[in-house]
């Protein structure tokens, strides 16, 4: 059974937002060609943040507790120039250099498994599903660096609710694009492609878990996981799967790319935890992008990346050393 956008959102709403989106995409190609001045609604909302490189994606500041990190946002050039996206290479500068080949239109996301409403979603319908919010989240990479990004998107829970998960659904798996034609390192032996990740259903339903379509008031740059990615701010960055093409609901815990590649080093949970060392290095501190250098500060890594008040309850009674 295929899900129609009209089953999910009142028709006028979809058409209204789709109209706005068409305008947005049109202005994005115009911008790319340099034929239009970069004036958009997002710029009016966040004049200091918008880098003016990609199409605006306007959003209201999120009122959700934990969604407005007070730390200074990382510079856009660092956030879009220092990336992990192994499909485009393993050096931090590779994704920015190579990801221009990623083709993000048309884009669809398939919903499979234990839900009452499986089906294929066009990106336009996902964009129109819920109002866009700006959420300023810290993101901590398992390698020891961190950044602060104003993301644009909405709670993944908004989508999951519409899909009506069955009582037997306990986990959610995220499958990302693996296209050897546009992704030069798919086929390399670093990982078993496609890159996949997973969450427990209650983690996926937590309001802080963000389905992100943009950052810094604009659509996502390809290297940051365009056109749609996950951001799970209390977990190491690798849980935040980029360029998602499939979301599957299951009863059993799904395999995840990094756990398959190195099970002793990367568990299913991967909660940011300064007390559980990586087997090859400590996780007690981190370096913030933009604060590097000899005099750069080392920051103490916080339990659950500083989101303990919001998410700690999810893990009550769980042995976090065993379930790392
Ligand atoms: N598909 C895919 N998603 C991915 C990765 C990847 O290699 N492929 N790397 C992960 C890792 S290790 C991190 S730290 C974050 C980095 O996100 P950013 O480049 O936007 O900072 O993306 C995650 N999502
Ligand atoms: Mo990472």
Give an overview of the whole structure.
The structure is a single chain. The protein is α+β, with helices and mostly antiparallel strands and 324 residues long. The protein folds into two domains: 9-54; 57-314, Oxidoreductase, molybdopterin-binding domain (Sulfite Oxidase, Chain A, domain 2). 21% of the residues lie in helices and 21% in strands. It has ten helices and 13 strands. Strands 1, 4, 5, 8, 9, 10, 12 and 13 form an eight-stranded mixed beta sheet that branches. The protein has a five-stranded mixed beta sheet with strand order 3-2-11-6-7. Strand 8 (210-215) and strand 9 (218-219) form a beta hairpin. The two termini are 38 Å apart. The site of the ligand Nc1nc2c(c(=O)[nH]1)N[C@H]1C(S)=C(S)[C@@H](COP(=O)(O)O)O[C@H]1N2 has 17 residues, from loops.
Under the CATH scheme, which class of the largest domain? Alpha Beta
Our Rg estimate from Cα atoms comes to 19 Å
Count structural domains: 2
Global outline: globular
Order of helices and strands: HHHEHHEEHEEHEEHEEEEHEEH
The name of the CATH superfamily of the largest domain reads: Oxidoreductase, molybdopterin-binding domain
Instruction: Tell me the CATH architecture of the largest domain.
Output: Alpha-Beta Complex
* Helix-strand makeup class: alpha+beta
What distance separates the N and C termini? 38 Å
Bound molecules: ligand MTE, molybdenum atom
Helix content: 10-25%
Tally of DSSP helical segments: 10
CATH topology of the largest domain: Sulfite Oxidase, Chain A, domain 2
Beta-strand content estimate = 15-25%
